[in-house]
Amino acid sequence: MAELKExxxxxxxxxxxDIKREDGGDAPSGGDQVAEQEVKNEAxxxxxxxxxxxxxxxxISIQTxxxxxxxxxxxxxxxxxxxxxxxxxxxxxxxxxxxRRHLQNLHWKVYVEFEGQRMxxxxxxxxxxxxxxxxxxxxxxxxxHYHCVVxxxxxxxxxxxxxxxxxxxNKGETEASYCGSSDVPFEEPAPSGQAYEIMxxxxxxxxxxxxxTTPQKSDTYFNxxxxxxxxxxxxxxxxxxxxxxPLECLDAFGATGIMGLQWAKHLRNAVKVTxxxxxxxxxxxxxxxxxxxxxxxxxxxxxxxxxxxxxxEVEGVPIAxxxxxxxxxxxIMHLRPFDYIHLDxxxxxxxxxxxxxxxxxxxxxxxxxxxxxxSLYSKSPNVTLRHYSCHIVRTEYYKxxxxxxxxxxxxxxxxxxxxxxxxxxAVALEHFVLVxxxxxxxxxxxxxxxxxxxxxxxxxxxxxxxxxxxxxxVDDTLPCNCHGSLPGKTAVQLGPLWAGPLFNTGFxxxxxxAAVQHSMDDIQPLVKTLICESECTTIKSxxxxxxxxxxQVECGVVIKTLESREESGPADQSGKRKTGEExxxxxxxxxxxxxxxxxxxxxxxxxxxxxGMNMPKSVTxxxxx
Length: 625
What we know:
Radius of gyration: 31 Å
Strand order of the largest sheet: 11-12-10-9-13-14-16-15
Structural class: alpha/beta
Number of helices: 21
Largest sheet: 8 strands, mixed
Helix content: 25-40%
Number of strands: 21
């Protein structure tokens, strides 16, 4: 109403000027013309500013009363009126009585309510066109949707909006918190005509399209659940940056560019970041996010980059430099060498491993994030065989099985380029498997890594398992007697899998220091757990020192290796694992140094149930305790 009053005032002022002209009968002077023009410009500017401010605060489809919805259009006036929440092609202009019934029966009744606010159904072109069956974008149709009263995101389904609001309530987020916080501070029209939101993570702002959570409908896909993955990758890069700098690092699948922007913003001159994506929309979004974070975009120059790292974030002065390129990931990895490469495609990363190992520098690091949990967690064994050339079944240790399967695929790709690997970190969570490896050049290192790829013999009755030795026969490999006491065969061969260690304790400790230095409180407990698992200890012993008993038994499960099989004796005939007093005579062979090599398939961070609980239907967190 404020902008209407100001517009009326400007109109009245203009009418007064016209009346004075008629009374005087003289032509207006040059000074009067200037004054009139200034009044028009000020009125137009104020009207534009007020309108943009109003639309920024709340969408017109969010109302508290029906009268507010009816005030969007003059229903008392004569003539045909258009619906304020429907495009002309969907609802043609009609008379007031019919438009009032349309607003009441459609928009006001089809709603989602939250804290006294009604989010009415909106048919305006606020979202992308839904493609037709032929895939033609132009012949598609707009999708009806709701505007969230808290964060202004648009969601098509009513049930999805209700779930979205419940997440806001669980997090304690309200409309006021979003208006005042820096997570999603405002909404304004994007260059493509859509509305976007600003999200802040680790001090880095990125703009997101409304459908950023749906990879099939958005090129700039962003998953909030992958925050843990992004922080683990950041810490591994920070550790490598302490060894040598500047580092040539590549974020091969940029999307919004948040990962590469976090590298550049926090590590400054220690890294030379390159962000690539094959999509024009993503490249444009990455460049806009660079400007949002005061980071200069390099068009491809290979010279010295960035200002002095000690400089503060002065307005208008770039704090870092990032190279953004529209290029296929395989192409850029074939063309240029890098010290650090991160692969995080949508699904499996096996199609990019050969190119990644082609030009990676010696002692460089490659981190691989795989999100195809259906094939990794043995829900789709045929897909697993196609992508990873592995045969697996459902087991109680399915997460460690997935991690070793990814590492085996990475090791084979490295061996094809005459390179070996050292596994620094392997984490399998609910929605992704992250593997971080160091690259060791040379055919000798490649041969050593290839020797660690072995078949796994798994008993389907008691879940006992052991890696086959090189050249060993299958008979009498398992320590259990299930094959003798039960009819038929009980053991199957799985793999080939990685039989070496999954952790590097020293690297994990340096990652913990990096997490503390950069205030990553979310992943510090996870990294501490990984350190304990790499040493075969518990969290308590991380602070109080390891004990011999802790090294032998953890959570009632014996840590078994091939060297101690003879000493441990035959397994229980019932197929259950030894616990308590029965495991007292089992001694794990310790190395001469203080660090312990992580034995394969002992219960540690993959804390599944001890017996009888196979893979759950809904995969839970990797760390259940």
